[in-house]
Design brief:
15% of the residues lie in helices and 45% in strands. A hairpin with a 2-residue loop joins strand 1 (134-137) and strand 2.
């Protein structure tokens, strides 16, 4: 076809040249008009002649390229090149030629129009990434990044509303199977509460899941759950029984605070199952009291746990417990019955003090179950008296225990007890009725002395149950008279006992008793009615 076109053009140019010779001398504009008409006429005539003479013309052979490759061969080569990697794509040159020229490959590329058509079709089949389409999966909207969207490669946290730090979440449940999901990162370790406020007839399931969407716990309409600090969780509000509007109130525990050295701690219980925790190191060993002062209608549970979280003791509104000095405990203030403000007063015992050699000790009872303790070593064996002087309305329990803490004897406000010389005891002054100030007077017996030579004794009864003891060996067998001279109003009990302490005979103020020569007896002058000075005269009765 190209050959025939060249032939027609040559003929046309010959005719046109002849006409130009004829037009010489004519005005230029006439020549221009005539040239245009001749050109158009030649084009139309040429096309007409070709179409009519085409059946009578011989076939035209395939055109050969400069390197001997026909157009048909070029098409086949192009197909092969589309399925094979072109040299140089992997930075490797064919046949080791470092000066590889890709000119030959450009010559074998098919017609440009056909190539552009193919590229246009490819662009229509592939999505454009100038604006990324949205893909919905599990009620979540995620951006298509060119990677196939599957359940495995979508993060459960992707594109979920973050409610970290929010205390209230609102929404609607419209359809069965609907799940509204929110993510949040917990700020503290502790017990969280998710409470729902629903429109009439509504019911939802509240679910807490981990970052990988595995369920940790769920509940109907509300949920109490322990969460760890700085972990991310998913909260799901799910259809359960009918459409409804919902408000989810999130109860967040307080950060664990150290209240060591404090005598009180305050806070507020605002949601069910709330548990406020405080770290406390006991300054001394002894009996502690945790008393609560609550707003109207409030009630709390007070619990003391070890540092490992194991509960040691608990009680409603108040707790008494023995703690050890230097150990760390966890004080828990937990919801029991309604919201309330609270103040916890911490009663700390006094450090145990050694009062050996003292006759008086003073202190204050400030809280219920308080027990102030004192270490006391008895100077001599005998009957001791612990008497109290209390502020108005006060009452205490006096207790003597062994050094191991086991109680030996106790009584209200005062105590009489036999102690052994050199042994150490624990004196406890304990709360009984109300707070009060106290003074404890310690009555110490006198040492036992031998009065055989004197035949006469004098002394002073200073405290209730006092018993002054003397040794006496009878010079003769017979009846002896023991007579007393006392201060006005004084009264004593005079007793004779064996050397082993067993009583033989006693009387008030004066005593007559038969004694045997050479035997040693124990003479006691005992408190009977009020303190007093006394004298005792020992005489043989010869009548």
């Amino acid at each position: 076809m190209v050959g025939w076109g060249i032939l027609f053009i040559a003929i046309f140019l010959a005719i046109f040249g002849a006409m130009v010779q004829m037009w010489k001398g004519l005005p230029k504009w006439i020549v221009a008009v005539c040239a245009t008409i001749v050109s158009l006429s030649g084009s139309v005539a040429g096309s007409y002649l070709y179409e009519n003479l085409k059946p009578f013309l011989p076939p035209i052979s395939n055109t050969t390229s400069s390197d001997g490759m026909t157009k048909q061969d070029m098409g086949e080569s192009n197909d092969i090149m589309q399925n094979e990697e072109l040299p140089g794509q992997n930075n490797e040159l064919p046949d080791g030629n470092s000066d590889f020229d890709n000119t030959n490959f450009e010559e074998t590329i098919p017609d440009t129009a056909e190539n552009e058509s193919t590229e246009s079709e490819d662009r229509q089949e592939s999505p454009s990434y100038d604006t990324e389409p949205e893909t919905t999966y599990s009620n979540e909207t995620v951006l298509n990044t060119g990677v196939e969207v599957t359940k495995e490669n979508i993060s459960p946290l992707y594109n979920i509303e973050d409610i970290t730090g929010v205390s209230t979440v609102t929404g609607k449940i419209k359809n069965e199977g609907q799940k509204n999901r929110y993510k949040f990162t917990s700020g503290v370790n502790g017990v969280y509460r998710f409470d729902s406020d629903l429109s009439a007839g509504g019911s939802v399931k509240i679910r807490i899941s981990g970052e990988s969407d595995e369920t940790i716990d769920s509940g109907t309409n509300n949920l109490t759950i322990y969460l760890e600090k700085n972990k991310t969780y998913i909260m799901s509000v799910e259809y359960r029984n009918g459409p409804c509007d919902y408000i989810i109130k999130i109860g967040v525990p307080n950060e664990l605070a150290d209240v060591t050295g404090s005598t009180s701690v305050s806070g507020s219980i605002t949601y069910q199952d709330q548990n406020d925790q405080y770290r406390y190191v006991a300054p001394v060993s002894g009996r502690y009291r945790f008393d609560s002062d609550l707003s109207a209608g409030g009630s709390v549970k007070i619990r003391i746990s070890g540092e490992n979280g194991n509960s040691l003791s608990s009680n409603t509104n108040a707790l008494t417990i023995d703690l050890e000095a230097g150990k760390t405990y966890i004080l828990n203030i937990a919801y029991r019955n309604g919201s309330c403000d609270y103040t916890i007063n911490i009663g700390v015992p006094v450090a145990i003090a050694d009062i050996s050699g003292a006759n008086v000790v003073a202190g204050s009872i400030r809280y219920q179950d308080q027990g102030d303790r004192y270490r006391y070593t008895a100077p001599i064996s005998g009957i001791y008296r612990f008497d109290t002087d209390l502020s108005a309305g006060g009452s205490v329990k006096i207790r003597i225990s062994g050094e191991n803490g086991n109680s030996l004897s106790s009584s209200t406000n005062a105590l009489t007890i036999n102690l052994e010389a050199g042994k150490t005891y624990i004196l406890s002054v304990e709360y009984r009725d109300v707070p009060c100030d106290y003074t404890v007077n310690i009555g110490v017996p006198i040492a036992v002395t031998d009065i055989t030579e004197e035949g006469y004794i004098s002394g002073c009864i200073r405290y209730r149950d006092q018993t002054d003891r003397y040794l006496y060996t009878a010079p003769d067998t017979g009846t002896y008279r023991l007579s007393t001279d006392l201060d006005a109003g004084g009264k004593v009990k005079v007793r004779i006992g064996g050397e082993n302490g067993n009583s033989i005979k006693y009387a008030i103020n004066d005593l007559s008793v038969n004694l045997e020569e050479g035997k040693t007896y124990m003479l006691s002058v005992e408190y009977e009615n009020g303190p007093c000075f006394y004298e005792v005269f020992i005489e043989e009765d010869y009548d």
